[in-house]
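for the record, two folds in this file. i put them one after another cuz i was lazy. first one right below, seq on top, C-alpha cells after. the second one comes after a little note so u can tell where it starts
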Amino acid sequence: MLARIVSLTPGPLPFIRSFHYRKTGTLNCTTREMGFEDLHSDVKKCVNLRLCNVSGCMTEILEIHADHPSIHVVFVPGNPGVITFYKEFVESLFEFLGGTASVSAVGSAGQTEKNWDHGKLYSLPEQIDHKIEFIKAQNIEVPLVLVGHSIGAYISLEMLRRLQKKAVYCIGLYPFLALNLQSKKQSTIVKVATSRVLSTTLSFLAASLGFLPTKLLRLISKLSYGKSWSNTAVEAACSHLSQYHVIRNVLFMAMTEFRKLSETPDWEFMRENQEKIAFLYGIDDHWGPLEMFEEISKQASGIALSIEREGHTHGFCCTEAGSVWVARHVSSLINNKLASSCR
C-alpha cells in the first residue's frame, strides 16, 4: 500500500494519450467519456469516469454500461482506493464478459483528486456503508456480482452480508482478510498509520512533492516503480497520491483496517455462503498469505480458491498484463458461476 505513496507528481494528467474526452454534467455527477477500441473482441464501448454524489460524499466512479446487461458487476478497490488505477482492469473485464455485463468500479470515499470533502476522514466501516449506499442509489435490475481487491475483498464480503437477496456472487482478489502478524511490512505500516504524528508528517511530505516540477516527479515515479507500471497507473499516482487529503485518508482507513482485521474472520458466514464466494491468492503476498488460503480451505471448503502463479503480484492493477490476466480470471469465474446456476 505505502509503496505507491513514495513517488508522486502534481496535478491531473491525461489518462492515456489515445483517449478522447467529452464532459457532461448532471445534478449529481460529472462524466468524462473515454473511447477505446477493444483489441481482443468486437466489443466497443466508452469508459466513463464519473464524479457522483453518494450520500453527500463526492465519489469517483469508473464504469461501462452494457446495452442489455444480464448482470451488473460492482468493483471495490484496495487501499489506496484511487479508482483510476483500475482502468485497464475494468476495460478488460467488460470485454472478456462479451459486453453482457455492466461494470461499475467505486472509488474510496475521501480519495478523490479534488478535496471535495474538506479533509474528512473515512474509516473502514464508513467505506463499507459508502459502497452500500452507492448500490442503493443505482437502478440495478439484474443480478449483482461483487468483486473486491485487497481490503476491497473484505468490504465485498460485508456487502454480500447485507445484500443477500441481490448479490449472487462475491470474488476477492488478493484478499486482505486478517492481520498478518508475521509481516514486517505490515508492522511498519501499523506504526505509521496508528501514529497521528507520523501519518500527518507522511501526508505533508507527499503533498510537498507536488511542488516539484512535473517532469522531475514523473521521472522519479518511473524510476521508483520501474518500467512495468502502465501509463495509467503512473498518472493515477501523479494526480491523486500527491494530495494531502488522499494520503491522510489512506492512512486513516489503514488504521481502522488493522483494528478490525485483528479479529478472527467470520468463518460461520463464509461457510453459510461458500457457494457464493471465490478468492484469488498470489505467491509471496503478505496481505493475502498462502497460510490464509490454507485456512479458508479448511474452514469453508466449498469456497472456490485459486492461486495466481504468473508473477503479477498484489498490485496487479498497476500493469497492463496484470490487469488483463486478472480480468480474464474474474470473467471465467463469473461465466462458470452463471453456467452452473442455469443447470
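(here's the note) second protein begins now
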Amino acid sequence: MEKTELVFIPSPGLSHLISTVETAKLLLDRDDRHRRLSITVLIMKLPNDTTVASYIEKFSASSSSDNNTTSSLSHLRFIHLPSGEEDQATGGTPSETFRFDLIDRQSTNIREIVSDLVEQPRTSRMGGLVLDMLCTNFTEIADEFGIPAYVFFTSGACGLGLLSHLVSLKLDHGQDLTQYKGSDEEMSVPCFSLPVPAKILPAVMIEGGPVADVFMNYFRRLKDMKGIMVNTFYELESYAVDSLQSDGKSQTPKIYPIGPILNSGAGGGDEKRTKSEEIKKWLDEQPEKSVVFLCFGTMGSFEESQVREIAAALEKSGKRFLWSLRKPGVKGSKIPFPTEYEGFDEVLPEGFLERTEGIGKVTGWAAQVAVLSHPAVGGFVSHCGWNSILESVSFGVPVATFPMYAEQQLNAFQLVKELGMAEEISIDYKIDFKGDSPPEIVGAAEIEAAIRRLMTAEEEGGGGGVRGKVKEMQSKSRAALLEGGSSYKALSLFIEDVIQNAV
C-alpha cells in the first residue's frame, strides 16, 4: 500500500523532541490498522547537550524490545542533522540569537533530505512537513517543493492565541509592543475570558531587540500553515479553542487539539535509573498524597538566595517534600543548562538536611512523570512549563505556580485565574538568564502559605476547590484520548486531512 510520509522538525532541546516523538507514536498507533503513514523525525542538537542522544538511544532500545509496538514504530525513523563547526565554536560572548541561528543553519541539510524524499521512487506520497513553532521558517522549503506545512504547537491553545494576538497588534495595527514592558495595563486577549496583565506577557515578545524580531518572524508564519496540532485537549481550554476556531478574520488555520501528549518515560542512563529507584523507594515509604514535589524543568535553577527562601518555607510548613534542586549553569554560556551540586550543603541553610531528615528528601535530577504518578505525591511546586501542566493534570496532582521564563507566567495566570486549578506562589516571577538585573526573590512566607494551601486543599464542594477541579480535569483528560473523545477525534481528523492533502 502507498505510504504517506510526514517529516517532523522539532526545535533543538529535549522537551520539544519528546513531545514530537510521542505525537509521532500516537499518529502511527492510531493509523496502525490502515498502515498509511510513515514518519521521519529530523533531530537538531544543542552544543554540549547529551540528553537528546541518550533519549533516542533509550527510546530505540525500548521500542525494539517491545513486540507490541514494533508494527507501528517500524515506520518511525530518526535522522540526526549534522552540527556545523560554527555550532561547536567556543570563546567569546554568544549571540542573543545563537539558538535560532543554529536552527536556520540547518536549512540546506533539511532541503536535501526533503528533496531526496520527494524524488524517491513513487512508493509514497509526501504528507508534508510538521514544524515546531520555532521552526516555521522551513515553510519556505515546503513551498519550494509544493508540499503542505503543518505546525505542532507544543504549548497550549491560550499560548497560541496570545502569540497570534501579539503578532496582529504589531503587524496589523502597528503597535510598538515594548510599551507593555513593565506596564500595569490589562489587555483584552481573544483566547482569554479575563483581562490579561501585561506583566505576564512573554518577555521575548515585548522587550524589543533581535530576539523579539526572530520570534515575531516565527509566529507571523503560523497563519500560513495548513493546520496546527496543539498539545492540549478541548475540555481544558474550550474557551481558547472555540476562539481560535471561530476567528472571523481567518488569522488562524485549522486547529487540532490532540493532547495531552506526555513523556512515556524513555530516556536516561544507568545513573539516572539508579536515582529514580532511590526516589521511588523513598516515596514508597510516605503516606498517600502527603508529599509536595518541587521541580522546575529543563532550565530550572535558582541562585542561593532564592534556594534559602524555598528551604525556609519547606521547613516551616512541616510538610513532607521531595525537592529536585539543580545548580545554575554558567552565566554567559550559549545554553546555561543546570548542573548537579557536589553536595547540597554548599547552597542550603546550615543544618537544613539534618532538621528535615525523615520528612524531606533533596535530590538532583528527578524523573518528573514517575514522581507525579506516585500515589504519595499530593502537590507540585512547578515552573509551569506546558508539559509539566499537562502531566500534573493527567495524574491529578494540583500545582503551586512558580513560573520562570518563556510563556510560563502566562500558563500560571491561566491555571490560577482563568481555570482556578492552581495555588499561586507567583504568576509573574521571572529569571534573568543574562544577569543584567539583580535576581528577583520570592519570600519564604509566600512560598510557605501556598504550600500549606496546596497540601490542605479540599476535594469537597462539587469540585469547587483546586484539588477537586484538578481531579475532575484528570478524568476529562483521559476521556479525551479514548475512542469517541475530543482528542481522539481531532487526531483522526488530522490523519485524514494529511492523507487528503498529500502530494
